[in-house]
Amino acid sequence: MLQAIYELPVEDKIFYAVLAFSWTVYLWEAYLAFRQRKIYRSTKHVPMELGKIMDTETFEKSRLYQLDKSNFSFWSGLYSETEGTLILVLGGIPFLWRVSGAITARFGLGPEYEISQSLIFLMLATLFSALTGLPWSLYSTFVIEEKHGFNQQTLGFFMKDALKKFVVTQCILLPVTSLLLYIIKIGGDYFFIYAWLFTLAVSLVLVTIYADYIAPLFDKFTPLPEGELKAEIESMAKSINFPLTKVYVVEGSKRSSHSNAYFYGFFKNKRIVLFDTLLEDYSPLNKTGDAEAEQGEENDVVGENKAKPKTNKKQGCNNSEVLAVLGHELGHWKLGHTVKNIVISQMNSFLCFFLFAVLIGRKELFLAFGFYDSQPTLIGLMIIFQFIFSPYNELLSFCLTVLSRRFEFQADAFARGMGRASELYSALIKLNKDNLGFPVADWLFSMWHYSHPPLLERLRALGGPKQD
Ligand SMILES: [Zn+2]
């Protein structure tokens, strides 16, 4: 057996190693999810320690919700691993490349028009994955989220949204990819430096235009009305020299009633976005009476609400809790977490382009994936970044998860330093309740997956509800 593997040509060794690694990761993830599911199944009573922060009803609701989600991700994970394997084994990538070549040939463009062929390939590949992903995402939204009272979308809104997302993605992906391929082609020996600089520039441009031009295509952003909350947010930002220019409320409740807050923007032009579902007074789910008034405009939430008046009544957070949550968010900024994350991701991207430059000349990589007579750059990017780097990608993502948990503790401590410990304490409990988070986690599962520390650990670090 070992002898037989040893005698395989190097391209076969590469191919089998890629498959074996992919299944190893899959089985590892499946094992972790199994451990966590066992916890969902067996923990039927609120543990002693949590008695004060979670009532039995919410606990049971969140247990069933997380169990459903976990079962769903078992099947969707098995499906996507099988699909990926079949694509590799049956030669789906070279097949799609030939189809793209046939399409470009119809337009009178020969194989020398590699960039055109690459764009067709990319369009077909993204279309394929959008279509095969659609049933899963429909099921997740309209069966699971719906069943647990989170879904606020109608089927029409969902489909329009998916289509819009596909079109917007193509509008960005296709020009960026063609420029990148062009740069790699003409860049000479140091093309990897130019390619890296180009992707850096693209990500800076995207971050700059995303909030003003892309996000509003999908969600409605309204300035937070003048009032107590706004004044308090402004004075808090001022107290730590956060260059706040605008506060928005985003209508997150139109898609889902999960709640959140974030900030964005460069240098002196920072903006804060609050999900309406975070705000006690703002959430349309809590509005009663004015449903009629809003019926004129396109509003799926109201329609849904009238049919099912009892979808998860949200608590949301009161003003001082919202401020505590923002204290945490601004802590990420003040402590340089955002900058650190950007630096790490750019260093990683530089390293990857450098290794790509080292590897792209190796014919056996292309042979391994069924490319016998051509070595298209786009395929090389795919093979190297996705398949060859996958062990490194796994390791990196684990390290980033560990780092993210550290940052979360630090941001909590920052909010505590601002004297907002007890408000953050109660906000975390409310948010956990509104989002039906399950407070008990398998240690291995949470270590691998949780970007935020488990609720109990955060509450303990905050030092209890009464302390300030
Ligand atoms: Zn955070």
From TrEMBL:
Asked if the keyword Transmembrane belongs to this entry, the reply reads: yes
A Pfam family the protein falls into:
Peptidase_M48_N
Q: Where is the active site?
A: E329, D412 (proton donor)
Which Enzyme Commission numbers does its entry carry? 3.4.24.84
**Which PANTHER family does the UniProt entry name for this protein?**
CAAX PRENYL PROTEASE 1
Please describe what this protein does: Proteolytically removes the C-terminal three residues of farnesylated proteins.
Put simply, this protein is called: CAAX prenyl protease
Native organism taxonomy: Eukaryota, Metazoa, Chordata, Craniata, Vertebrata
The encoding gene: zmpste24
